Amino acid sequence: MGKILAIDYGVKRIGLAVTDDMKMIAFGLTTVSTTEVFAFLSDYITKEKVELIVVGEPKQMDNTASESEMYIKPFLKKLEEQFPTVPIKRHDERFTSKMAFKTMLDSGLKKKQRKNKALIDEISATIILQDFLKTL
Fold first, then answer.
1. pLDDT tens figures, 6-53
2. Of the candidates 23, 43, 116, 22, which has an alpha carbon nearest to the alpha carbon of residue 6?
3. Can you list the GO cellular component terms from the UniProt entry (predicted)?
């Protein structure tokens, strides 16, 4: 069995999360800079069996695409070209950043740690993936 990898795309940073082999639990993997993400993914997908990639889909409250979608489209195209054997699905990512911040508050992280945007991106990817797992 393979894992599912989730991506929370950002212009500067990309949060990544992955499931366990049984696809029951999502774990934060890391956050990488946008310029280094394909090198990281190539290495990771070579070492781990990834059978699906889930990319967060930012939407407005009226269900239309958000402005950041224009940055995600070229990223998705390159992702499909670089990993043609791994299917890609999209999943609604509305409110994940707010949920990530609340998770950080609830877990007792200090104010300085809560300002760590890379950690917020990683937690957001984990929330996207955990929410996606509920649809399986």
1. 999 999 999 999 999 999 999 999 999 999 999 999 999 999 999 999
2. 23
3. cytosol
Class of residue 74 by CB neighbours under 10 A (exposed 0-12, middle 13-18, buried 19+):
exposed
The rounded distance, in Å, linking the Cα atoms of 57 and 82 is 20
Report CA dihedral (46, 76, 30, 68) to the nearest 10 degrees.
170
Structure tokens at 83: 């990993």
Q: Where are the alpha helices (DSSP H) in 18-116?
A: 37-47, 69-82, 96-106, 111-114
Nearest to 49 by CA among 70, 18, 80, 94: 18
For position 51, which CATH number holds? 3.30.420.140
Beta strands 13-19 and 3-8 are antiparallel
8 Å CB contact between 54 and 89: yes
DSSP assignment, residue 11?
A: S
pTM of the model: 0.89
